[in-house]
Design brief:
The structure is a single chain. The chain is mainly alpha-helical. The chain has helices at residues 2-8, 10-32, 38-56, 65-69, 72-108, 112-124, 130-146, 160-183, 185-190, 193-215, 217-222, 230-254, 257-264, 267-278, 285-306. Residues 153-157 have low confidence and may be disordered.
């Protein structure tokens, strides 16, 4: 039965839903413009998601129950995972985006799924099968194929120093994100989905809030005042930090980390599709070929793991 199949493969389905919702959120974040600094935007989306998760918790996992039953080790893993994957990785990602632009970030994003696969093998001892390697290769080739050199008038002028700093920030973001979620896998198995997502998000938001209160309190206060790009930032936060975060953590909770990480990588395919639909970006042969290759890689992993 369809329901039984979906329940048996809920981890893989969550991972694909995370990719789809994050791809849509990227479009909204692009539309929001550069109205917030990297750390301010990061904290803004986290707080919006925390409010929504706080409203959801009483109807799902409860507020304090898991806190009293989980071990200190599990709580420590979730806390460190939140700091690495949200406070550090997302801030580095936004800082990199401001320096080198979306096109180069998309290329660097190819490091995410191989990093998850590597950390899954190193930290969790997961067996990496041939279809993981082939799927990762196809997804990477698909994304690289989809990247086109824009017209000269639209090229971003990036200083050499900013370029290298941006690239290093992007690489650091992918490594921190992958390591942060994989290391939390044992704790995610023991904790309820909504509660673990909320706790991880809270632990990642606390250091951001402290840093901004000490260093840039004015910018922090201004980000919560409705402005020109605020509706896009708010919508992106709801889609990308609430729905996508729940699906993302759910994928790693219920599926193998290596499989979830590779299926997450398909977010770039969704981003290209949503950009064409909502931003009216043209569809070229390179983009069609790229999405086809990446889609084939995702389908291969989904077919071999979901049965």
């Amino acid at each position: 039965m369809l329901i039984d199949w979906m329940w048996a493969n809920k981890g893989e389905i969550f991972a694909l839903l995370a990719a789809a919702t994050w791809g849509g959120a990227l479009v909204l974040f692009r539309l929001s413009g550069k109205t917030m600094g990297p750390m301010v935007l990061n904290l803004f989306k986290n707080i919006v998601a925390l409010v929504l998760l706080g409203l959801t918790l009483p109807f799902t996992d409860g507020l304090l129950g898991p806190l009293l039953t989980l071990s200190w080790w599990d709580l420590g893993l979730l806390s460190l995972s939140g700091v690495m994957g949200l406070a550090i990785a997302d801030s580095l990602l936004f800082a990199s985006l401001n320096r080198i632009g979306v096109t180069r970030i998309t290329i660097i994003d190819c490091l995410y799924s191989p990093s998850v696969i590597f950390f899954s093998w190193m930290l969790l001892g997961e067996q990496i099968r041939w279809f993981h390697y082939v799927g990762a290769l196809l997804v990477g080739l698909g994304i690289l194929t989809s990247i086109e050199r824009p017209p000269k008038a639209l090229r971003e002028e990036v200083e050499s120093q900013d370029l290298w700093v941006g690239v290093l920030f992007g690489i650091g973001a992918m490594l921190s994100m992958a390591f942060g979620i994989v290391m939390a896998k044992p704790a995610l198995k023991a904790a309820p989905l909504i509660w673990s997502t909320s706790f991880r998000l809270l632990m990642g938001s606390i250091p951001l809030a402290i840093w901004l209160l000490l260093s840039d309190r004015k910018a922090l206060m201004q980000c919560f005042r409705p402005g020109a790009g605020w509706k896009y930032s708010l919508s992106g936060a709801i889609l990308g930090s609430y729905l996508s975060m729940v699906f993302w953590v759910g994928g790693f909770k219920f599926a193998k980390a290596s499989t979830a990480g590779l299926l997450n990588q398909s977010s770039m395919v969704f981003a290209f599709a949503f950009s064409m639909i909502f931003l009216k970006e043209g569809m070229t042969r390179r983009k069609v070929l790229g999405m086809g290759l990446a889609g084939l890689g995702v389908l291969l992993v989904a077919w071999r793991t979901m049965g």
